[in-house]
Amino acid sequence: MDRSTNKGRAEQATSPGGAASPRDGMPARLDAPVRLLVGPANFAGQGSRWARALENRATNTKATSFAFFKGVLDYPVDYGVPARTYRRNPRWRLNFYNHVVRNYTHVLLEAARPVFGPLHGPDGSFEIPHLLTKGLHVALIAHGSDVRIPSRHVETEPWSPFPDLEDETVELLERNATRAAELFTSYPGQVYVSTPDLLDYVPHAAWCPVIVDVDAWRSDAPVLEHEKPVVAHAPSKSAMKGSELIDPIMERLAERGLITYRRVEGIDPADMPAVYRDADIVLDQFRIGSYGVAACEAMAAGRVVIGHIAQHVRDRVAADTGLDLPIVDATPDTIEQVVLDLIADPERARAVAARGPAFVEKVHDGRWSAEALASFVEQPAPVPVDWKPSWIRPKVVMMAGNDIVSDARVLKYAQTVANWDLDVTCIGIPGRRLRGVRQFGKVQVMCPPIPSKVLLTGWRRRLTIVKANLRPWFSTEAEYLLAYSRWQYASRELRAERGRDRRDHERNESGRVRRSLLGRLQRAVRWRTLRLHRAVLQARAYFVRRPQRDVDLTDLGIGKRRARLLALHRRLPTGRWRRVMPEVMDQELTLGPLLDRLLIEVIHVHDVFMLGIAARAAHRAALDGRKVKIIYDAHEYIPGVPVVAPRRVAAYSDLEREFIRDADRVITVSEPLARWLQRDHKLAALPDVVLNAPVEPPADAEVTGVRVLLGLSEDVPLLVYGGGVNRARGVGTVVEALPQLPDVHLAIVARANSVTAELLARAVELGVSDRVHLAPFVSAEVVPVYLRSASIGLSPLLHAPNHDIAVTNKFCEYIAAGLPIITSDTPAQADLVNELDLGAVYPAGDVDGLARAISAVLADRDRIAKRIADDADLLHRFSWSAQAEVIRSVYTEVMGELPNAAWTPAATVVHKLIPGPPEPPETRWHAFRKARAEKLASDGA
To answer: Residues 6 or more apart from 681 whose CB is under 8 A from it?
Structure first.
């Protein structure tokens, strides 16, 4: 191939040792109408050679070859990065993707590998839709094992290497090659293969032959004129080449003095021409049934090449090129005799060797390959911009302002939607339980680090520094103790000086040393200054050291003053979310680009925190010509959220008000809340209601019931409260009622916190501590089984806006557990208890009323429990399966059509919220090995 026109490009090529790149770390920008990127494999340097060949053929085309360097058998490329950068540097991956879509018009994807590392998915098929939507033309080229399916190869090739490889290795090859072959055969654009045998797996592909530099390999050294013939074998992968089969044979010939055998492996590619020039015979491969770069290099050097070529491959080469393939055929069974015959007939051997350079010059010098690739750059096949492989399913992203694994509602949604053969990714904020990326069954969960950019810049940062320096009081006890320790040291130092005077006097009474008047005055001033300093420190520490007032257990964190503050902030700029919550902008800067890369069809936002980020992603997608639908799931009535500071609640309300109308559908947790949302935001349609119902427990779940866990017998009345505990939840009312309920026990299923500590302390004061138990949480999917042994389920909520409209998780869990329910008169739950005869209702916060309700329900417990257990419609209504039916109808309206899997009987059933990774499907190779083992066993018998 004439490389003179590409001398400048060749000098710019990145060597494995590294080369200069532009300042932005990206490849140089090309100046041509057609700009082609070839990568990321560059096996045997072919990516670079195809790029140069095409530039020679198409004058309006310039190309960049790209690969990542592994440290072994790396070949020069125009642009390369270390493997660690390719696999583990997200900043580089995103920058390279942006560079490619902005600066290239065509991409030749090698070996189905991803050009941008794992940016979009595990293989190149996940990148194709992204490139197509950006207007780039994409073609595919296969190198070998990327599409050579082991289970098919063993059926046609007796010497196939795969039966002798490790099963795990072949299983991986089988799975990857099957996926790649399916990609190549289904892709409507140009598809190429580098060796003719691969047409068995990709029949409609075009052959783009491997390229060798004929001049670099040309040799004038005569063949078979050494004292002993030199036989060379230089496998890149010995297991695939059959080296273990031919090495012993060649070594025996060498021991007999018939040949000199040179076994070469791991040599630098630049040293290979010298190896071949000094050989008479080159052994290629004996297991695959085809030929590749090494055989072409040996033929270009004018050596006798021996290898195993399947007959149909020889016929295919002859038909396409009009030339017989000048490779002497041999198998491991015949190689010894073939070598001896060639040694015995050197003229025949020289004739075969002489045909090699001409064959390589016609087929493998780059002109043939460039002609094949020219159709791609000159007349690329039209590929629909929305094309994607069958295994890339419609993408649904669920977003929440937490670490996902702590939010059972999000997990239930995610596993349900994943059951419908939709591709579900949950995106959240790093938390205590999850950071980074995890796979739970079919659901991927991503909680990427959120660097503080907006939060720690601009006027906010400057104001924080000024306030910290000007604030006259201590904000924490630790600050006071630090300052007080300095005072202590100064005080002790002054006292020590007085001690020195006394000690000096005792040691030398005759020559007593007296301080000067000035020294005594200085000490007195220091002493009084220290006393004043201590008083100042105590004043500055007043707010952190003052005695705490007794806690009011009925304090809900909401009241008239709070309501006035909330109303004020909602009207003034002080309650705008951009001012109060700059961390949301930091999240947007990290999560926004992530959403842009995922080619999403639906973003399902849980709670208000991520609503703006999702809406902005949908807006940007519209500019790119894509439609992204938004489902907003309002878990709470934002203005009624207790405890949280009024200004922040106002900011949440501002965020919801700004973006809720961007949602295509709104879902919430109760019918009253649905009506309030429609009223407040003037929504065109009433939000759909999906209760916080429990999933169906796994059939194999082994759970110790709460009664057994607490060591209580069946005849002991056991009340149970399950869920989070704060003062507004009203659990204090239950503790206060226990003195009126002899022998009745209370199990609080909650995580310990300051409020549970207050409740246990109050139980001690009331003399009922032996009947109040703090029980541990269990996995959300087994809660009904865990609670089933209790007598009554309690929901003692005190009145607050969100409580009055809530149908809580625990309410549905009690029904699933078959427990009678006692609830306070919060309207949403009280109406259901009265309507459905589920138990009793009492006035919220009324201790006597609760005691009477408990006594009444205990007396009628068996009837109520049987009534619940016998009502299949009731159990279904408050189950997750019923909620999944609502979700399915919402998704059907939003997406237009769901996969068939969404309509199977199991489509609405979820058993585990955090399952392990899915088992890979059984491959044809597994079936082959199983059949082979059975045959061997029957033959042995």
So the answer is: 656, 657, 660, 661
DSSP strand pairing (281-283 vs 230-233): parallel
User: Hey, is 487 helix, strand or coil?
Assistant: helix
Exposed/middle/buried for 854, CB within 10 Å: 0-12, 13-18, 19+? Answer: buried
| CA 88/CA 117 separation, integer angstroms | 8
Q: Kindly tell me if the per-residue pLDDT of 238 is higher than 90.
A: no
CA 751 vs CA 132, 787, 790, 803: distances in Å: 50, 16, 19, 20
Whether the pLDDT of residue 2 is over 80: the answer is no
pLDDT grade for 373, boundaries at 50, 70 and 90: very high
Segment 836-840 mean pLDDT: 96
pLDDT recorded at residue 545: 73
Show the tokens assigned to 688: 């759909």
Per residue, the 3-state secondary structure of 489-517, as one string, reads HHHHHHHHHHHHHHHHHHHCCCCCCCCCH
Q: What pLDDT is attached to residue 882?
A: 96
| 3 state SS of 229 | coil
* C-alpha–C-alpha distance, residues 546 and 687, integer Å: 49
Q: How far is CA 275 from CA 222, 234, 896, in A?
A: 14, 9, 64
346-363 and 293-300 helices cross at what angle (nearest 10)? 110
SS3 category, 262: strand
SS3 state at 457: coil
Residue with tokens 């060796």: 195
**Average model confidence (pLDDT) across the chain:** 89
CB atoms within 10 A of CB 852: 15
Q: Taking 80 as the threshold, does the pLDDT of residue 219 lie above it?
A: yes
Three-state secondary structure of 748-784: EECCCCHHHHHHHHHHHHHCCHHHEEEECCCCHHHHH
- Tell me the C-alpha distance between 272 and 266, whole Å: 10
Q: What is the pLDDT of residue 254?
A: 95
Three-state DSSP at 25 gives coil
* Rounded-to-10 torsion of CA 82, 83, 84, 88: 120
Q: How many CA atoms lie within 13 A of 618 on its CB side?
A: 25
Query: Using CA atoms, how far apart are residues 104 and 96, in angstroms rounded to an integer?
Result: 11
Token reading at 665: 């559908």
pLDDT at residue 519 above 80?
A: no
pLDDT at 151: 93
Contact, 223 vs 350, CB < 8 A?
A: yes
pLDDT digits (tens, 9 = 90+) for 30-87: 999 999 999 999 999 999 999 999 999 999 999 999 999 988 778 999 999 999 999 9
How much is the pLDDT for 467?
Answer: 58
The pTM of this model reads: 0.77
User: What letter would DSSP give residue 878?
Assistant: T
User: What does the radius of gyration of the chain's CA atoms come to, in whole angstroms?
Assistant: 39
Strands 443-447 and 436-440: antiparallel
